[in-house]
């Protein structure tokens, strides 16, 4: 198998946030692929509960400074970086005062979903894609882990499809258990519109995006789907099969299985 360039877009990565199936895989998978000599880049949100001093995060000035317009409002994009010392995996963090650094993760101090989680996911997705363009790095595969990255496939296949960085990129989405309590509100579709990601592309989805609807959006624009936990959402697994999108069932010995799946989705060129 030829070396691939793999972009991991993660909702959570341990040790920066508490251990969950999602955060542990967010750490283990990039490390495993790096150890298999693939070239990787890894992103996550700079959640407000991340200890920047302990994690040794620092801002990357040359990548920061862009403004992203969401719902007619400018939101400054800040990029930070750190390395997980034990695995030598470098992590880029998408930050913004309003959306991330002054907040908890998906839920507030009372355990309630933030009402603008949809906008936060849009900012995160566009922030990652704009930063990858600035890095002048062209991924073969983008692997999305966690619902916070669920709008990435839509954007790559529509709004960014003419960008040289993503013209030939294949997308893999992992399905986990961890979801949302509430829907993303009636304004999410409007906020999601960007360039070729037009309103008519969203017409077939419910007006209120919940966790399942968001999963369907990710699946529809992915080239492959992975069941990343045993109890991943059964409705989304059924939906993937109905759409006849390649599906990798749950496996504990993930490293070799995922690598083979990447090769299936993005075959090596024939000599």
Structural class: alpha/beta
Q: In whole angstroms, how far apart are the ends?
A: 13 Å
Mean pLDDT across the residues is: 90
Poorly predicted ranges (pLDDT <50, ≥5 residues)?
none
Shape descriptor: globular
> What's the story with the biggest beta sheet?
9 strands, mixed
How many E-type strands?
Answer: 11
Describe this structure in words.
The chain has 271 residues and is of the alpha/beta class. The chain has nine helices and eleven strands. It has helices spanning 21-35, 52-55, 97-101, 117-135, 152-157, 188-192, 211-220, 234-242, 254-265, and strands at residues 5-10, 39-45, 58-59, 67-70, 73-76, 78-84, 89-95, 141-145, 170-175, 224-227, 247-248. Helix 7 (211-220) packs parallel to helix 8 (234-242). The radius of gyration is 17 Å and the shape is globular.
């Amino acid at each position: 198998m030829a070396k691939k360039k793999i972009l991991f877009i993660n909702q959570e990565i341990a040790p920066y946030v508490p251990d969950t199936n999602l955060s542990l895989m967010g750490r283990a998978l990039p490390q495993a692929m790096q150890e298999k000599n693939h070239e990787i880049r890894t992103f996550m949100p700079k959640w407000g509960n991340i200890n920047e001093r302990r994690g040794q995060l620092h801002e990357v000035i040359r990548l920061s400074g862009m403004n992203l317009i969401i719902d007619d409002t400018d939101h400054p994009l800040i990029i930070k970086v750190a390395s997980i010392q034990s695995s030598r995996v470098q992590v880029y963090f998408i930050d913004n005062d309003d959306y991330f650094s002054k907040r908890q993760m998906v839920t507030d101090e009372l355990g309630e979903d933030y009402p603008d989680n949809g906008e936060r996911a849009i900012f995160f997705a566009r922030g990652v894609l704009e930063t990858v363009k600035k890095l002048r790095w062209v991924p073969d595969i983008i692997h999305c882990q966690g619902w916070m990255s669920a709008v990435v496939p839509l954007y790559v296949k529509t709004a960014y499809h003419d960008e040289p960085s993503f013209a030939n990129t294949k997308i893999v989405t992992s399905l986990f258990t961890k979801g949302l309590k509430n829907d993303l509100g009636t304004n999410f579709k409007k906020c999601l519109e960007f360039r070729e990601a037009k309103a008519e592309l969203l017409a077939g989805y419910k007006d209120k995006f919940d966790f399942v609807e968001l999963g369907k959006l990710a699946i529809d624009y992915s080239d492959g789907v992975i069941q990343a936990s045993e109890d991943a959402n059964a409705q989304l697994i059924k939906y993937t099969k109905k759409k006849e999108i390649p599906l990798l069932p749950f496996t504990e010995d993930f490293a070799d299985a995922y690598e083979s799946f990447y090769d299936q989705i993005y075959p090596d060129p024939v000599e």
